[in-house]
């Protein structure tokens, strides 16, 4: 005889199976192929400290996610408090003078400077100049 417990287990198993099928069939984000991002084509939205333009956040042929954006910071402002994340990123300074928290020290960087934020390393960025600071961020995630 089939018990109430048997029916409950069967219903739960069926629900889990249906959920697994739904996840497997969910559309996957399109893989980013060749792309060009022009300054004129970027949509810069206002933030409380300047502007932000998201270029892409998508998987590529070799990365789980490639995220790129451009930030403009007003003088005397911070992008965010010091933080960490498992992914790595490059910050490329286009304009202005910033200080970055890197390796436990604040370091000054100007136009053309490049910052590498290592995985799980505390980092932050602040505009210490008299003009807007503009920088590009390239951030990537790889599954392990």
Explain what this protein looks like in three dimensions.
It is a single chain. This protein is of the alpha+beta class and 144 residues long. It has one helix spanning 4-25, and strands at residues 45-46, 50-58, 65-73, 78-83, 88-95, 98-102, 105-109, 114-117, 123-127, 133-141. The strands form two sheets. It has a six-stranded antiparallel β-sheet, with no helix packed on it. It has a four-stranded antiparallel β-sheet with strand order 4-9-6-7, with no helix packed on it. Strand 1 and strand 2 form a beta hairpin. It is elongated, with a radius of gyration of 22 Å. The model has no long low-confidence stretch (mean pLDDT 89).
Q: Key terms for this structure?
A:
1 helix, alpha+beta, 10 strands, four-stranded antiparallel β-sheet, about 140 residues, about 45% strand
Layout of helices and strands:
Elements (H helix, E strand, L loop, with lengths): L3 H22 L19 E2 L3 E9 L6 E9 L4 E6 L4 E8 L2 E5 L2 E5 L4 E4 L5 E5 L5 E9 L3
Antiparallel strand pairs: 1-2, 2-3, 3-10, 4-9, 5-8, 5-10, 6-7, 6-9
